[in-house]
Amino acid sequence: MTIAIAYAAPSAKAPLEHTTIERRALRERDVLIEIAYAGICHSDIHTVREEWGQAAFPLVPGHEIAGVVTEVGPDVTKYAVGDRVGVGCFIDSCRKCEQCLAGLEQFCTDGGMTSTYNDKYRDGEVTQGGYSTHIVVDENYVLRIPDGLSLDVAAPLLCAGITIYSPLTHWNAGPGKKVAIVGVGGLGHLGIKIAHAKGAEVTALSQSMRKKEDSLRLGADHYYATGDPETFTKLAGTFDLIVSTVSAVVDLDAYLSLLKPDGVLANVGAPEDSSTLHLFSLVMGRKTLAGSLIGGIKETQEMLDFCAEHGFGADIEVIRADRINEAYDRVVASDVRYRFVIDIASLRD
């Protein structure tokens, strides 16, 4: 058993605080990871503030984890001590259903995936996340971080990166395709980078003109403000694929009007409230309204390798652990460009 230093929420909506947690003794195929960096995802905030339903406390969030292997179980074959590795949004699944066997563990149909925090393994063990010095994970749910990526900029790729990479890949963003990314934040800034690297013509759509310069720097070919009603007139019928990263309710009819016939509006943002649309927005043009949820282990590794090959990670602001609560408030206020990453070494101070 390993005692890990951590930052945990003691109760709903309470500030996170310094604590210790126990990590299980290594099983045959387990890997002990000393965590170097952990990204702050808006999902962490939704969970600890119980905005997505009841949570189990005390709760250590964090599913954007990057670190180094320090010990392995006797039957581990994929990793060795010293390897640079990551852990994303889930750390187990049934391993035998159709979806797991197809490499789509995020859609496991036999009990669902086991989330990295605020969940339980099938044996009842409670999961605690990456705002901690160590984590123990089965080798089959660990990712290898390529040498071309530093651990700090790689951490957010384990959730934000795969969340946006998966729909761009599934709906074939690439040369000859016109792709729009809605929202230039933690997800959207990576969407611009990845779509550009895939060879698509990329348009960034954000509420105001405030992020135009950043978006063009990140790789966008065009930028428009959705707060300007003329944008929807100018861009009507333009895009093959739109990926919306926003977590607020939007006018789906307006965004569907921007698609070409057979175009796809894929949503990776998850607003709390229900959305509505007129079905004519779909039938007139045989358009598709879709959603996407992270990616499986194989695709996540593919994404990490892709980002390393093209020489980019997330745009980050590294913070000490004692600034986590401040960072939460800034994320809610959209005051970050574009992902907070916790320097886990600061937990030991």
Explain what this protein looks like in three dimensions:
It is a single chain. The chain is an alpha/beta fold and 349 residues long. Helices cover 23% and strands 27% of the residues. The protein contains eleven helices and 19 strands. Strands 3, 4, 5, 10, 11, 18 and 19 form a seven-stranded mixed beta sheet that branches. Strands 14-13-12-15-16-17 form a six-stranded parallel beta sheet, with helices on one face. Strands 1-2 form a two-stranded antiparallel sheet. α6 links the parallel β13 and β14. The mean pLDDT is 96. The chain has two domains: 191 residues, Quinone Oxidoreductase, Chain A, domain 1, CATH 3.90.180; 131 residues, NAD(P)-binding Rossmann-like Domain (Rossmann fold), CATH 3.40.50.720. α4 crosses α5 and α4 crosses α10.
Give the tags.
single chain, 2 domains, 23% helix, Rossmann fold, 349 residues, alpha/beta, 6-stranded parallel β-sheet, Quinone Oxidoreductase, Chain A, domain 1, EC 1.1.1.2
Please identify which CATH superfamily of the largest domain we are dealing with: Medium-chain alcohol dehydrogenases, catalytic domain
What proportion of the residues form beta strands (DSSP E)? 25-35%
Helix content: 10-25%
The global form is globular
Number of domains: 2
Low-confidence stretches: none
Mean of all residue-level pLDDT scores: 96
Order of helices and strands: EEEHEEEHEEEEEHHEHEHEHEHEHEHEHE
- Report the structural category: alpha/beta
Please give the radius of gyration in angstroms.
20 Å
Q: Any idea what the CATH architecture of the largest domain is?
A: Alpha-Beta Complex
Determine the number of helices (DSSP H or I, runs of at least 4 residues).
Answer: 11
Distance between the termini: 22 Å
CATH topology of the largest domain: Quinone Oxidoreductase, Chain A, domain 1
**How many strands, what sense, and barrel or not for the largest sheet?**
7 strands, mixed
Under CATH at level 1, the class of the largest domain stands as: Alpha Beta
